[in-house]
Write a structure and sequence with these properties.
This protein is of the alpha/beta class. It is built from five helices and eleven strands. The protein has one domain: 3-Layer(aba) Sandwich (Stationary-phase Survival Protein Sure Homolog, Chain: A).
Length: 234
Amino acid sequence: MKIILTNDDGIDAPGLQTLSGCVEGCGDVIIVAPGDPQSGIAHRVTTRAPIRVNEIRQRVYRVEGTPADCSRIALKDIAPDADWLISGINPGANLGSDVYNSGTVAAAREAAILGCRSIAISQYVAKDQQIKWDITGHHAEPMLKMLFEHDLPTAHFWNVNLPHPLDNDTERSYRFCGLDTHSHKYEYEKKGGEYTYNGSIHERPRDSGTDVAVCFDEGLIAITRIAVGTTKLA
């Protein structure tokens, strides 16, 4: 099995290092990741300028582009025969409407568009808490290996969110669930001609049984299958 790893936090991010450890031994691993952080850049792609790519170590490529650029270059040139592309592990949840803003999710979505099975994986960070990456990896690894064996229709990808805080003594269950469709509860503070975002992910509205509630309220690993497109009208 050949696996591409990428992210939106940059090639030196601890989440990417943790992800690499999770899939060690699962097959041939190739890292194709942005040189610098690209968080929140969504599905932006570069089409009107060259994209510099350097192989900084064997099978490790630094891309001066976006997460979606990384997926395109990886699957079009570096490893077109890849079986999976995994994006993450993102420090912060990508739930509900976040999937449209997230560079992490965009990389997995682009892979699905190109016909490659893919997973976006994120670690929710509870209020006033910090991630312990070794513990995140402990819980992420079995989820990824389970999804490798799970059916995934063409033009779909998995979006995985780990709850927080975690520990090594308690195994967290998972649930397959839908995407929450509530809008964010936020506002802007205006000073002069400038607007500053003011909102909290922790208090966002959610429906029971959807990904936000499963991760935040139930403390379970939320796994959502997301389609590339929308349902066709009759």
